[in-house]
Amino acid sequence: MKHAKPWLFAYIGTLAALLVASALHPAGLRKHRALAVDVRRVADENDRLRERNFRLRREARALAGDPAALERAAREELGYVRPGERVYELAPPGGSR
Question: pLDDT per residue over 61-72, tens digit each?
């Protein structure tokens, strides 16, 4: 390139200026990166919620169709006992209640 054309330098300079402006502008590359991180975080949260929904649906089906599962849930989650049963609560070691 013995005699470079002035428009080529102007074109390359303009392109470089636009790239720098895009990188530094709040709505440019920085925002794109931040949004990409948010998208990944939301996708991960959706995966966790999808798995939780699956477990809850499975538990709901079990509670609807299995009396033993219903009794277990009532005992564990609600603290229910059968008539005549005694409940003993043990204090944690070294702790006072």
Answer: 988 888 888 888
